[in-house]
Amino acid sequence: MASVTRDSSDVARGAPSGPVGLTRRRGARRHPTRAAWYVPYLFLAPYLVLFTAFALIPAGLLVWISLHDWDFLLPGKPWSGLDNYRKLFDSGSTVYSDYWQSMKATGIFTVFSVPFLVALPLLLALVLNGRFFGRSFFRAVYFAPFVLGVGVIGVLWQYLLDPNVGPINHWLGSLGLRDDIPWTTDTPWVWVSLIGATVWWTIGYNTVIYLAGLQDIPRELYEAAKVDGASPGQRFRHVTLPGLRVVLVFVVIITILASANMFGQSYLITNGAPAQQSRTAIMYIAEKGLRNFQMGEAAAMSLVLTTFLVLASVITVFAMRRAARD
Q1: Handedness of CA 114, 119, 125, 128 (dihedral sign)
Q2: Per residue in 184-242, pLDDT tens?
Q3: What's the predicted TM-score (pTM) here?
Q4: Domains of the chain as residue ranges with CATH
């Protein structure tokens, strides 16, 4: 059998004996193959295609439509420039009072619904995060209404809150209380109805988000706080809230955006009553664009509303960051 000789440099470095082909030299490393520059973009391509098709292009088209007197039933769509925006800020225009009344209704609903939709799910999440019999069942029960569509929710609560034949007024009357509350026809009861139905419908969504955040907080922090003699309130303030800081910012922002875009509840439960006082901005924009075919004005209204929502989101982020630093 032919013998296999070793390289003299291997012997000098003290390489182990053996056939050269089976011996791995010291210091030899395998370098990973560098991916081509376009590989990351291939992974991003599906998202970029969808984002461009369903976000960038519609946003650009919205701006373009807002600069025209756009009626999609007519072939001609003349250029109007900033005239659609001027009408929104001109007190003498035909859309000024209606639009800002709808913005006022949106503001009322947002201001009074967001605190409930931020605080109540947090309280519920703290309870459901504990260990007790039937915990999974109660989690499912509180989240269940959220899977229903807004059409189901609207019809259900419109029937329950009907001032004449609704079960709620009938039940209140059987208890000897007032049985003629105008839940869907007069203020402030319409706001109680809209906010109550929305909180019942969506409370489970924010609760699930809080639960995910609570489970990411290390248990050791709570145990250390107990050893130091911290009360439940102190543990909530110094452990839970700091651990949920990012989650809180996310919940507040998405709740503001969702409340400001409320449409179905107002349309189905109160139909804008009384005297369009509960007609929200989205509801008025839909009427203007889809029922009256004035898409140019509706697009301008949408962009103004979007601007307010962006500003509200930015202010919320900065306010919560400042509160966290203080």
Answers
A1: negative
A2: 999 999 999 999 999 999 999 999 999 999 999 999 999 999 999 999 999 999 999 99
A3: 0.85
A4: 94-325 (1.10.3720.10)
